[in-house]
Design brief:
- The complex is a heterodimer of chains A (about 350) and B (about 260).
- Chain A is an all-alpha fold and about 350 residues long.
- Helix content of chain A is about 65%, strand content about 5%.
- Chain A has helices at about 1-35, 40-45, 50-60, 70-80, 85-95, 100-110, 115-135, 145-150, 190-200, 205-240, 245, 255-265, 275-280, 285-300, 300-310, 315-340, and strands at about 175-180, 185.
- In chain A, a hairpin with a 2-residue loop joins strand 1 (about 175-180) and strand 2.
- In chain A, helix 3 crosses helix 7, helix 5 (about 85-95) runs antiparallel to helix 7 (about 115-135) and helix 14 runs antiparallel to helix 16 (about 315-340).
- Chain A is globular.
- Chain A starts with a helix and ends with a helix.
- Chain B contains 6 helices and 6 strands.
- Chain B is elongated.
- Chain B starts with 19 loop residues before the first helix and ends with a strand.
- Mean pLDDT of chain B is about 80; it is low at about 1-15, about 85-95 and about 135-145.
- The chains are: A mainly alpha (about 350), B alpha+beta (about 260).
- At the A-B interface, helix 1, helix 8, helix 9, helix 10 and helix 11 of A face helix 1, helix 2, helix 3, helix 4 and helix 5 of B.
- Chain A: It is found in: Cell membrane.
- Chain A: It holds the Pfam family ArsP_1.
- Chain A: It is a multi-pass membrane protein.
Chain lengths: ~350, ~260
């Protein structure tokens, strides 16, 4: 009975903690949809894939959202035709590489500044590497949920095509609607692009605000439900698995990293506050394992696997998980072996 | 997306249909907002979150209620105008059927409106490793000073001080006045109990227990686990589990009701 009560309390605690961030993320994602021209944002992103991955990883500095909030944004970026490298880089790095988290980590580890900077550095290395690996596949759509690929439309052809301006829209095949002279709407384009073309004729502010709220409700409904399921699983595991089992694993350079990564995965704590959590282990665990916790936790944990499923198919999440785990483990091990 | 007839031009007459889906959405938003409002008003938010992060929960509450109300106003307006406006959707549900998501969210909000979270107690303290008095505390003091009156220190203040300077004899004779719940530690003699508190850094998910041993006066019955007590006594050194430990000796025990904010920070 006590266990059940604890489980439910934990569950509500995780929900109440994550809901504001989910709301902020959904709100930001809706603002992005209606008030920001991602085409312009995406246009300034370098074409070089390494730079694109790095740029995607750094976008988080503009939009401080934690791991509950950044998935709707990454999803939105993908529907707007962002390159895979940008979306994956953003997805993995944004929860950590942003001013709010940096500040929180700084507060927690003021006496170990190397933790603060290495956290950002390691996150960028891992995010860029995984973004590049995913970019190796020209068409990422087999990895994505069908509902998302329907929104995305056809992939960019690998061969460079002449710029849009050189081709009259009327020389393309498809179904078109003439709106005004020189303004043509392609009706059989992917929905996201039709929407983008319609949005050119900017609706009045009231309408846009209403659409924003509509979109927020829609995403909140969907992501809120999966957050509930994820939090329930995380609470169950926390109550069912004694912490001693997880903590008992780790004192050595290798086992401590594994234990801390397992803990990061189980606890599913928000990236904005996980540095305080990690601080409690600062004197018992190796610095490498603390970093592993701080880098790996925001990327993949029990809570956001269910959210990730709204973007990726299970197989892709497994790849993300395995790649992130291996890279974080290696970096943390190097740190443990050479800097202690 | 809504149950309203699609505006495909086939319907010449404007039909007044109740936009059920928008109403259900509004109900979901309002219920979630009310759940957070209830946690706030009843003070149960203190069992879930660290006070520093409460403004976020309050922000979420305001946003949810505002969205719910605006959705209702919107439905009311479009119903009165008889336009039966459909809510534009940008995408379809990816993972879960819409009815399922809404039902789940409403169910959780209703559950949150009737369920009262309970603070953690001694059983959880065991599970989270209370046994080591010199447990890990999250703040690392930059310097060690015994400022302030010793009876003003909370349990977590004592444990933090001990972490910095663990020699129990240094505190001998100091007055301690702390409150917490009773935990029986297996293997301790009958005259010893642990007076404990949970410490929160962000939310209940990372609450960790701290405690101080108390040596009961001879002939005093052991208080039951989870009893909330105020303990006033003098610090002394005793050997427990083969370790010299700081213990509150010669205590006066006063039973107190469970505090509104049972956690320390």
């Amino acid at each position: 009975m006590t266990q059940l009560n604890n489980g439910i309390t934990l569950f509500f605690s995780l929900l109440v903690e994550a809901m504001p961030f989910l709301l902020l993320g959904v709100m930001f994602s809706s603002v992005l949809l209606l008030f920001v021209d991602e085409q312009k944002l995406l246009a300034v992103i370098p074409k070089n894939v390494v730079l694109a991955a790095l740029a995607g990883s750094l976008i988080g500095f503009l939009f401080p959202v934690c791991e509950c909030g950044n998935i709707p944004v990454a999803r939105r970026l993908l529907t707007k035709g962002a390159p895979t490298a940008v979306a994956i880089g953003f997805l993995l790095a944004a929860p950590t590489v942003n001013p709010v988290v940096f500040w929180a980590t700084w507060i927690a580890f003021r006496d170990q500044p190397e933790i603060v900077f290495l956290r950002v550095g390691f996150t960028l290395i891992v995010a860029v590497t995984i973004a590049l690996i995913f970019s190796a596949q020209a068409d990422v759509r087999p990895f994505l949920q069908d509902s998302l690929t329907r929104m995305m439309g056809e992939p960019e052809p690998a061969t460079p095509v002449p710029a849009e301006a050189e081709i009259s829209p009327l020389l393309k095949s498809g179904t078109f609607l003439m709106q005004s002279p020189g303004q043509v709407l392609q009706l059989d384009a992917p929905p996201a692009q039709v929407l983008a073309q319609v949005a050119v004729a900017a609706p009045p502010m009231v309408t846009r605000l209403r659409m924003m709220v509509d979109n927020m409700v829609l995403e909140l409904r969907e992501l809120g439900a999966v957050l509930v399921i994820g939090s329930a699983i995380a609470a169950f595991v926390q109550v069912a698995v004694p912490r001693e089992v997880i903590l008992g694993l780790g004192q050595g350079p290798v086992t401590s990293i594994v234990a801390m990564m397992a803990l990061a995965w189980v606890v599913s704590i928000c990236s904005t506050v996980d540095s305080f959590f990690a601080l409690s282990f600062a004197s018992t665990f190796t610095s490498g394992s603390l970093l592993a916790f701080l880098v790996f936790g925001p990327m993949i944990d029990l809570k956001n696997i269910s959210l990730l499923l709204t973007v990726f198919k299970g197989r892709a999440i497994l790849y993300l998980f395995v790649l992130a785990a291996q890279l974080v483990f290696l970096l943390a091990l190097v740190m443990n072996l050479y800097t202690s | 997306m809504t149950s309203t007839p699609s505006s495909n031009g086939l319907r010449a007459s404007r039909q007044r249909s109740v936009p059920w889906q928008a109403l259900v959405d509004a109900a979901m938003l309002l219920l979630w907002g009310l759940m957070l409002l209830r946690f706030t008003v009843t003070g149960k938010l203190y069992l879930l979150l660290h006070p520093d992060y409460m403004w976020l929960a309050h922000l979420a509450m305001v946003l949810l209620l505002a969205m719910g109300v605006s959705r209702l106003v919107q439905v009311g307006l479009s119903y009165r105008q008889g336009t039966g406006q459909t809510i534009r959707s940008q995408e379809h549900t990816a993972l879960l059927p819409r009815q399922f998501s809404v039902a789940l969210l409403i169910a959780i909000a209703v559950f949150g409106l009737v369920y009262t979270p309970r603070p953690f107690a001694s059983e959880t303290a065991f599970q989270r490793g209370i046994t080591d008095v010199l447990g890990q505390t999250r703040s690392r003091p930059q310097r060690f000073s015994l400022g302030g009156a010793s009876e003003e220190r909370t349990i977590v203040d004592w444990v933090r001080t001990l972490n910095v300077y663990p020699e129990p004899d240094a505190y001998a004779g100091q007055t301690a006045q702390v409150s917490g719940f009773v935990t029986h530690i297996p293997g301790w003699p009958d005259e010893f109990v642990m007076i404990s508190r949970f410490v929160l850094t962000c939310c209940a998910a990372d609450a960790y227990p701290v405690g101080l041993p108390v040596e009961l006066p001879a002939g005093t019955a052991r208080p039951a686990p989870d009893t909330w007590l105020e303990v006033k006594g003098k610090m002394q050194t005793s050997t427990l589990d083969g370790k010299r430990q700081l213990v509150i000796g010669d205590p006066t025990l006063t039973e107190i009701p469970e505090p509104r904010t049972p956690y320390e920070y």
